[in-house]
Amino acid sequence: MSERDDDEREFDLRWADDAQHKEPSARARMLAARWKENPPQPQPFRADPGPVAPRRSSWISTTVVLGCVVAVILLLGYANFRAPY
């Protein structure tokens, strides 16, 4: 692109950003039309969360992963030890 095209594009962007009236998005228009006929019910800012299931200890999963890694290392070491040269 030439320098003149860049200047024109920058001018167009500035012109669009400085517009006095900006048209709402399609979603905003759709919600406004829907809410005129059927306004939404009031909702609390943060709803009360439901019951939370107790989490397992992270030590259990850490132990399982490390145990698997140790088992793979021992298995590979044993296979390498038994392999004929």
Overall description:
The protein has about 80 residues and is mostly helical. The protein is built from three helices and no strands. The protein has helices at about 5-15, 25-35, 60-80. The model has no long low-confidence stretch (mean pLDDT about 80).
Give the SSE layout.
Layout: H1 3-17, H2 26-37, H3 58-82
Keywords for this entry:
mainly alpha; single chain; 85 residues
Fraction of residues in β-strands: under 5%
Total strand count, please?
A: 0
- Helix proportion of residues, in percent? 55-70%
Overall body shape? elongated
Q: State Rg.
A: 32 Å
Give me the number of helical elements.
Answer: 3
The sequence of SSEs as H and E is HHH
Mean pLDDT: 81
Distance between the termini: 66 Å
Contiguous low-pLDDT stretches (5 residues minimum) are none
Structural class: mainly alpha
**The biggest beta sheet, please?**
none
Concise structural overview:
The protein is mainly alpha-helical. The protein has helices spanning 3-17, 26-37, 58-82.
